[in-house]
Design brief:
2 copies of one chain form a homodimer. Chain A is an alpha/beta fold. An 8-stranded parallel beta barrel of chain A has the order 7-12-13-14-15-16-17-18. In chain A, helix 12 links the parallel strand 15 (about 325) and strand 16 (about 365-370). In chain A, helix 17 (about 505-515) packs antiparallel against helix 21 (about 620-640), helix 18 (about 520-525) crosses helix 21 and helix 21 runs antiparallel to helix 22. The longest helix of chain A has about 35 residues, at about 650-680. The interface between A and B is medium-sized, with 24 and 24 residues.
């Protein structure tokens, strides 16, 4: 249970994080696989830190064992609880499968759960609290996840893809599941991964890329054993396994001549195939599907729609309790840039909103948070407000495809928090998080939160050591979207860099906050002024190329000319995309005056001399933010030096090197973007700074 | 000797091309490997066409055999010649190794050569002439190649490169030499290739990419046998084999710790290694080296210069009669786009001109024809006039990296002809071809012509069937740079589409001329207005991306802003590149008024309203040429339809499909470039045509 014995970085679970728990006399009360996990975790901690642990089953009257303990972790149940737990029980209410109660009963800290997963999450909450969990004044408090499904999507290929590599959009080495077309045999690392996930609250992963290539298609059938092996390792940590499948699987691996969702043979094939999956993996989560998108097969081939397609798989999964995550990322990627009436931002809504009500109960429509593709800044997708009769999951990108590819420090917690707090129907209405939790719709259907994983075989798991904070924050926000992202960062800092192990814990905290707190907005400043996106190198998506996608078929334009820049998405004169939003946003975005500055160029084409709320012209705003962004990176880089000698040297060096690259890259962004707009507009910088 | 028995396209040597020779009574007189080839060729032709052939050796008195023949192919020599040959001999003069005399002696056509290669070239000249070679009025004419070294460089990788593939910048399938890291075993095809080369006059090839990767480095040592096998197959066609080598070979494959050209162990290693090469391949041509360029190793690593580097290899080759082709394509590919003082166009001159006189006799400096990199339009490289004491080879690109990648029909003969006819010292001075032939320098040192091959495993050899004309024209121009490129095209057409095999030979000729004659200038019109280059997709170099290289480290800029476009390379206000030319060009290029339109933006940055000689403004010129270029492609496409049913259907279909793609691509070029400059300049098209 220690930090990987030097085979990988311990991340937020170094042995020191268990100091407070491991020094106690502990009783673990209850039965079941995940209770065994709790017991093993506590036993390992006690071995490290001098405490000791007892175990009793639900059938035991726990009182005897509870004598003289400091901490009880107990499942509620028919049999009598240990006395301190019994005392706390009254406060618990219904905790559900994953909830837990934490309380003090006299001198004893008590964690109560109705079911084993709750006990595991309670344990990791104890770890987060550390010594504070044993202070007399600890209030009794139930904890329940806001979202039931908290999922990571791995875009991992089993066989290395000639262009996209082992992990599509992966910046942390190879896959932790697969290598050279076969499963990796390092089950210890996989176990450590499950443990890290459980400690953040993540309870589901999909184990292969949504672009399902030939080898990966076979995971559903003759290579199912590979998936089962992963499921077996992750099960003790409450993490269920999902599989990305090809919609064409009946043809590709099934030998049928069609994958038509209304064909009886196809339905039968999916039913039989899915039954076989559940025979092997009884708690299998379900399927994840990218259909009719960027070249992937889908129901359109057969003249069917996405409801037909999703319901086909849902029907096969329903008898076993599985769900299908059907991605709404569908658009025309062979667009003609000359055609200004087509708007990629409209696509998901146009495709899916008309289908609301047609999806089976166990279909979850997985919607990217914005209408485009994980840009540093986008408005929230209008699809989220458009489908009250459909279970919706919101998809975030933990891997930093468009936000610095784990070479730039970019803490995404604040971005996600903004998205999750956004209220599609205006102030007073439900938030995006509430829609995903199912609390916005009439029948309370929950969808959940999905994040594209940033994890790989890298020693630090995430390439950039500080990108661990993104993975951690994703899990924590999925558990409770209202958490303060600064407080999440504090949790992550104190767990990852335990105060007992660094010379100057206050400096560590200060510096990491200084580097990370504003890092997403800093990244936005030097890359994406006023909501313009996609000014990136085509293909790699790293580094600037202002016109890189301007004449491409991908539907990602800014329309800069010598007079102005931006995409007119208004109803009055543009693509009408603003009309996909309910009020008040429909009017706010439509209005040049009311549109928020950070989305100005996403919704409007304006002259360079237009003055947004910031008070400077658009072109001067571009110059200013780009100069400022680079200066902020320079300052981050300087701040980081203060931790030399305070943190582990290898980690410090790695981050220092990456911050050097970030400064180089940010300077390149600044110079290319400023030069581009200077050459177009002819407007010199008001402050006389150098533009090339 | 027939057309590959359907295993590949016969190109310019279908059986029908041998009709005139093969119907004769022929005497082949002389000894030697290449005379055997001549005999075998004639014997094959006679078997096909009803003639017959006799053979006599140099020791024979040939008179008896010569009785009643129509054609004598004879080596001159000590022994008596067959009577008709003896009669012609007086006209021959000195023919040299590769020259031949063609004449009529009474009723007999005579081909005389001093050495076997000349006899082989004479045979193929007969084939080109066809029936005309047997007409009574045929004048006696000696033929000697203008350039001794007529070389193709294959950029073929033995092992498939993960990014560049099997053939770097290859558009005709895989390598004809290598597959999957091993030699191909199809020696028949290799033999057919040698035959095609000999028929154009090409007498040397390098068999691997100038970017020498790990596997390819071993061709010099433990995999030398693979090279020898190729040499054995090509030797009967007079084609010598050269090898691209890594300058770091002593380290990479030799196990030394340095490749320093002044290190005694390094010199010794090269001497021993080279001796071993010649033991295995006695007529080995030599080495081709790309050093200190685009990441390749070179003498700079050791603080030495290119003369040190080239002389090292030359010393090893000299005892065996080999040469080193040392490429002058050296520049800083990590340039900072912000730095306008650095000019990639200057690089080769700056690096090499100071070294003139320091190279050993058997070093050939191989200079790309232009100062940049095979753009559709560049000025001739100033290096060509700068090194009178150095043997210079001019390098052309037969593979269409920047000229449509064998998806566009683009006959490069006229481009090369312009380059070869260019007179670096002005009218009256020697031409580029004369420099390459060694007739410009005081000591007559010859360098030759090198072309980057466009050949691959494709059935048509060159991907685009019409791209065969480029390979053919390259060989013919290397033999005689003064040839008219329209006449070369006639030769190619009549050989490739023998009049006896098409229903309408005149239509075939007309149509192919219509499609090809102006195709290079058409390509220039829709891609590279007024000398601007590199507006291509980075990496692939196919299709437009106006700003693709604008902010890159590759040194390939156009500096377009809202006011104007072009690169100021003048001495007065720019990079001073014009100063690398001798007069009159130095003044011509320096002058905005005298600079030729087609190079205007290569040498000058001008406002969009500037009016060049064409009489329209720069921006209108851009619009006009781009609209015109697309219309010309449309017309080419229509003209091609006339050959439906006249030519072989598969070939016609292939070209028709490629012309469709050319029209699509040309339209894309037109629209992106016109839109780009419209957005920048704000100037509408004077003729109101649609710009997006």
């Amino acid at each position: 249970m220690s930090g990987g014995d030097g085979r990988w970085h311990a991340a937020w679970l170094p042995p020191e994080a268990f100091g407070a728990v491991g020094a106690r006399r502990v009783l673990v009360h209850g039965d079941g696989l995940l209770v065994d996990t709790v017991f093993a975790e506590v036993a390992g901690a006690c071995a490290d830190h001098g405490g000791h642990v007892l175990r009793s089953g639900l059938a035991d009257a726990g009182e005897a064992g509870a004598v003289g303990v400091d901490l009880v972790l107990a499942l509620t149940g028919a049999a009598p609880l240990p006395a301190p737990a019994e005392a706390a029980r009254a406060d618990a209410g219904t905790l559900g499968d994953e909830g837990f109660l934490m309380a003090r009963a006299g001198e004893v800290t008590v964690v109560l759960a109705d079911a084993p997963p709750g006990l595991l999450y309670g344990l990791f909450h104890l770890v987060r609290l550390g010594a504070a969990a044993f202070e007399p004044g600890l209030p009794a408090q139930p904890h329940r996840p806001a979202l039931r499904r908290r999922m990571l999507n791995h875009w991992d290929n089993v066989a290395v893809h000639p262009v996209m590599g082992q992990v599509e959009r992966g910046y942390a080495g190879g896959s932790i599941f697969w290598r050279d077309g076969r499963p990796r045999r390092d089950l210890d690392r996989l176990r450590a991964y499950g443990r890290l996930l459980a400690a953040t609250g993540i309870n589901a992963i999909s184990v292969n890329n949504v672009n399902v290539h030939a080898t990966e298609a076979r995971l559903l059938t003759d290579r199912l054993g590979d998936v089962a092996e992963i499921a077996d390792v992750l099960r003790p940590y409450g993490v269920r396994v999902h599989l990305s499948v090809s919609f064409a699987a009946p043809v590709v691996v099934g030998g049928l001549t069609t994958a038509d969702p209304l064909d009886e043979k196809v339905r039968e094939w999916w039913a039989i195939t899915t039954r076989a999956v559940y025979e092997r993996i009884p708690d299998f989560g379900g399927y994840l599907v990218k259909a009719d998108s960027e070249g992937q097969p889908g129901p359109f081939t057969y003249g069917r729609d996405h409801a037909d397609g999703a319901n086909l798989l849902a029907a096969a999964l329903a008898p076993h309790g599985g769900v299908v995550h059907w991605r709404a990322f569908v658009y025309n990627h062979r667009q003609d840039w000359r055609d200004r009436s087509t708007d990629r931002a409209r696509a998901a809504y146009d495709h899916f909103a008309p289908l609301d009500g047609r999806f089976r109960d166990n279909v979850v429509l997985q919607v990217k948070y914005g209408p485009m593709d994980f840009q540093a800044r986008e408005p929230v997708s209008p699809v989220i407000a458009a489908m009250p009769a459909t279970r919706l999951a919101v998809e975030l990108q933990v891997t930093q495809e468009y936000t610095g590819q784990q070479r730039h420090a970019c803490y995404l917690g604040p971005c996600w928090s903004e998205v999750l707090d956004f209220r599609p129907w205006g102030p007073g209405g439900p938030s995006v998080a509430e829609v995903a939790a199912g609390r916005a719709g009439p029948d309370g259907r929950d969808g959940g939160l999905a994040g594209v994983s940033n994890v790989g075989g890298d020693w630090y798991w995430t390439g950039h050591p500080l990108a661990q904070a993104n993975l951690y924050a994703f899990g924590r926000l999925a558990w409770d979207p209202r958490l303060d992202t600064g407080a999440i960062l504090d949790e992550w800092i104190d767990l990852t860099f335990p105060p007992s192990t660094t010379g100057d814990p206050a400096l560590v905290r200060q510096t990491l906050h200084a580097v990370l707190d504003d890092s997403w907005r800093t990244y936005e400043r030097y890359t994406a002024p006023l909501g313009v996106g996609f000014m990136v190198r085509p293909g790699s998506h790293y580094g600037p190329d202002v016109d890189g996608y301007e004449y491409s078929p991908w539907g990602t334009y800014h329309f800069a000319d010598r007079d102005g820049v931006g995409v007119d998405r208004t109803r009055a004169t543009g693509t009408g995309f603003t009309g996909q939003y309910p009020e008040p946003w429909s009017s706010v975005y439509e209005s040049l005056d009311r549109c928020p500055d950070e989305l100005l160029l996403f919704f409007h084409h304006v002259p360079y001399g237009h003055v947004p709320h910031s008070g400077t012209t658009v072109v001067q705003h571009i110059y200013d933010t780009h100069f400022a962004g680079v200066e902020q990176v320079r300052w981050m880089r300087q701040r980081w030096d203060r931790l030399a000698g305070v943190l582990d040297r290898a980690l410090h060096d790695r981050v220092a090197g990456l911050l050097d690259e970030q400064l180089r890259s940010a300077t390149e962004w600044r110079d290319q973007i400023n030069t581009y707009f200077f050459r177009k507009s002819g407007v010199p910088d008001a402050h006389g700074r150098r533009i090339h």
